[in-house]
Specification:
436 residues, alpha/beta, Erythromycin esterase family protein, Hydrolase/PRTase-associated, UCP036794_erythomycin, EreA/ChaN-like  fold, 2 domains, Emycin_Estase
Length: 436
Amino acid sequence: MSQVKSKDIPRNVDQLQQASHKLDTDADLDVLLDEIGDSRFVLLGEASHGTHEYYTWRTRISKRLIKEKNFSMIAVEGDWPDCYRLNRYVKGYENSGENAKEVLKEFNRWPTWMWANWETVALTEWMHKYNKKLPPNKKVGFYGLDVYSLWESMEAILIYLHKKDPIAFRSVQKAMDCFEPFNIKEGFSYAERSYGIPFSCKREVQDLLVNIRNRMPFFDTDHEAVFNAEQNAFVALNAERYYHAMLSGGEFTWNIRDHHMSDTVNRLMNFHGSDSKIIIWEHNTHIGDARATNMKHSGLINIGQLIQEEHNKEGVMRIGFGSYQGTVIAGYNWGAEMKKMQVPKAKQDSWEYLLHEAGPYDKLIFSKDIENFNYPIGHRAIGVVYDPGYEYGNYVPSIIPERYEAFIYLDTTKALNSLHIKPDGLQMPETYPWGV
C-alpha cells in the first residue's frame, strides 16, 4: 500500500510540521485564498460523504470565495433535478420553496444524508440571503453534476414542456414510452432488464436532446429554465448510456460518470460567461487527480484530472480533505439504514497517520511544500458504504503532491447531521469499491 518505511517516519513527520499552516479560524484561510489567486476552478474534496467538518470547512472556504473573489456557483456531487430546485430557492425564484429545509427534505435518493443535512441547510440559507442584494444575472447558483437521475430528468422536461412546446413535448413522451416497459423507478431497473438484449433507448434520448436544442428559440425568455431543460436532456442521454453499460461493468461506467460531470462543469461555465468561476464539491476520489493513484492502472479517469488537463491555464486548485479519527454517517450496504459509525484511528504509515504524528491539530498543507513526498502512500477514502471493521481496503495509494494542490487535515471529526431519519429504500449499485 505504501512505500513509507518505519525508519523514515521521523523525517517525514518533521517535514510535515515545517509545511503545516494551523487551521482554526476563518482568518487562517487567508493563505489559501492567496494561493487560489485568480483561479477559475476550485475543487473541494472530502474523505467521506458523512463528515460534519468536511461540509463546514468547505462552506467557510466557499463563502469567502463567493464574497471576496466573485465565484459564480457551487456545483456538487448530486442529481441535477434536485439541485436545480435548490438553485431556484437560493436565487429567490417565484414558488421555489419557503426555506432550504423544505427543499432539501425532497432529496430522497439514497444516500439521502449527502445533501439532506443541516450543514447544507446552513450553507444554502446563507446563499439565499446573500443573493437578495445581487441583480438576477449575478446571483450565485447551486447545481448538481451527477448522472443518476434518468427518470427524474425526463419528468422535469415533461413538466416544463407540457405548455411550452407541444412538438418537443412529444419527443419526451416518446423517450419515456421507450423506458416504460422496464418499469423504471431507478436506472438500475433499466440496466437489469435490458442486459443481454440488443435493444436500448439511446436513439430516443438522442432525439429528445436534439429536439430541445432545435426548439430552444421558441421557448420562453427565462434563460435558466431553458438551460435546465436542455441539461435534463443531456443527463438523460448520459444516464441511459451509464445504466445500459452498468452490468457489463468495470471502469467504463465510472468514466462515463466523471466525463459527464466534467462536461456539465464546462456547460455551466459557458452558460455563465467568460468571467465565471466555479466551486466544485465532490469526494476526494473524484477531485484528486486519478493519475496520482492506482486508479490510473485500472484505466480510470476522474473530474479532477479532466478539469486540470483542459483548464490548467485558467487556474485549477484541487484541495483534498482527510482526518485521523472520529465518527461518520454511512450504511453497511447499498440502500441500508444510515448509521453513525466510529472511524478508527488511521493505519500506521498512512498519510493521515503521518499528519497526526506531525501534531494532533487541524492544518493546511500546500503540495508545493512537500514535493519530496513523491511516492505512493495510503490515503483513506470512506464511501457511503462503509464497515469500520474492514479498514485495509479503504486506503488508496496516492502520490499526494500530484493528486492535490493543497490538503486540509482535520484531526478528529464527527458525523454529519441528517434531515432524514430512515432511508428511502431505493437501490443503486456501487460504481467503485469505495461507493463514492
